[in-house]
Amino acid sequence: MTTEPSEITGLLTALAGGDALARDRLYTALYPELKRLARSHLAGHAPMTLEPAALIHEVWLKSAGREGALHRAQFFAHASKVMRSVIVDHLRERRADKRGGGAQVTLSTTALEQLAPPDVLKLDDVLQTLERADGRAHQVVEMRFFGGLDLEEIADALGVSVPTVKRDWRKARAFLFDALQT
Q: What is the architecture of the domain spanning 1-100?
């Protein structure tokens, strides 16, 4: 069952406005898309003890009713950021000296496929550097790569034009490519 973006936006708005019933309806409407997003985030990782359902629950606890997330694109951008954060924290714990580790993550954009799979912790460090250097380009990466949003949805969420999003996306990919090669 696919939920219309406008229905999700309406439920997010109702929830932000204090409608308690909207929370359950929103969870039901978002669950299939959140599950797809969680699987996408976990794909390519070394065997993980983290399940998609755990990521969905973390997102729900940290996102539902969140101030400022009044439409679908904003919600999924935030949800993707939460999922990446949970995965990074999980891998940091697993990598602690007392436990061993060595988990790897791969990227699937064309420009980055040529690289050896980067260490997820290095990827997180590079993304933090990008965020400090160019916050909007970082948001574009979060929404496009991790959130699966298209250029029009990102432009709408950021309040900029599609060509601006395209430039930010190219700039961010080049930055990530260079940073992950070293």
A: Orthogonal Bundle (1.10)
